[in-house]
Amino acid sequence: MDEFRDTAGEPVGADIDTWVRSFTRKESDSSELPPHHPNCLGCGPENPNGHFLSVRRDGDGVIAHHHFDQRHVGAPGIAHGGAVATVMDDLFGFLLYSVGELAVTRRLELDYLTPVLLDNPYILRAAVRSREGRKLHLTSTMEDAGGRSVITATALFIVVEVEHFLKSQKNPRT
Ligand SMILES: CCCCCCCC/C=C\CCCCCCCC(=O)SCCNC(=O)CCNC(=O)[C@H](O)C(C)(C)COP(=O)(O)OP(=O)(O)OC[C@H]1O[C@@H](n2cnc3c(N)ncnc32)[C@H](O)[C@@H]1OP(=O)(O)O
């Protein structure tokens, strides 16, 4: 394999390769699904600025119980819309353990139906609505403890090969 380097000129190819190849299709059970990466902004347990999203299988989809905190504030007492989008995007990323293939977000669309309040418990669910070739059409909801829908989201994920991530390392941002 070619040796890939990051923006600091350090070789990263082997790390990225190991990371991508660590993903395997997870069989259906209710156990917690593994984070995408220890430092993932959505679910990484080692990212102090992240959301620590914890996700389980739920039938054909996934489910998470989550609350936003002061780090995610937009207007006082209300979660920033971008923070909410981060969490919904990351939740979609957990469906890939069922799909069994690597994919990335091409389009993400949210309807903010009511404000998402800080320190309030929410239930998040996501599922694959349909697949056409490489296109995965995904859908999700966030409900409050009373079962009211506060967010609905849809996404288009595109299935990619391992090389997608390797190429990204080969062409660092300028
Ligand atoms: C065993 C496996 C288990 C897996 C387990 C977990 C795996 C975890 C994997 C990864 C961890 C990530 C952690 C998750 C976090 C949340 C997800 C993220 O944050 S992802 C980062 C943000 N997203 C990007 O960085 C993408 C940037 N975009 C791209 O790289 C390209 O645009 C890409 C690869 C998405 C597509 O590029 P093209 O050149 O390959 O494909 P083209 O031809 O442009 O589009 C493909 C098809 O989609 C349609 N399409 C494109 N946009 C569309 C749209 N808006 N609406 C409808 N169709 C659209 C097109 O018409 C085309 O369709 P036609 O093949 O011709 O039928």
How would you characterize this protein structure?
With 174 residues, the chain is of the alpha+beta class. Helix content is 20%, strand content 30%. It has a 6-stranded antiparallel β-sheet, covered by helices on one side. Strand 4 and strand 5 form a beta hairpin. The longest helix has 14 residues. Ligand 3VV binds next to helix 2, helix 3, strand 3 and strand 6.
Number of helices: 4
> Which ligands, by name, code or SMILES, are bound?
ligand 3VV
| Fraction of helical residues | 10-25%
Topology-level CATH name = Thiol Ester Dehydrase, Chain A
For the biggest β-sheet, the strand order reads 1-2-4-5-6-3
How confident is the prediction overall: mean pLDDT? 90
CATH level-two architecture: Roll
Distance between the termini: 24 Å
Rounded to an integer in angstroms, the radius of gyration calculated over CA atoms is: 17 Å
- In N-to-C order, the SSE pattern is HEEHHEEEEH
The CATH class label is: Alpha Beta
Largest sheet: 6 strands, antiparallel
The geometry reads as globular
Give the DSSP E fraction (strand runs of 2 or more residues).
25-35%
Q: Quick one: how many beta strands?
A: 6
Structural class: alpha+beta
CATH superfamily: Hotdog Thioesterase
Low-confidence stretches: 1-9
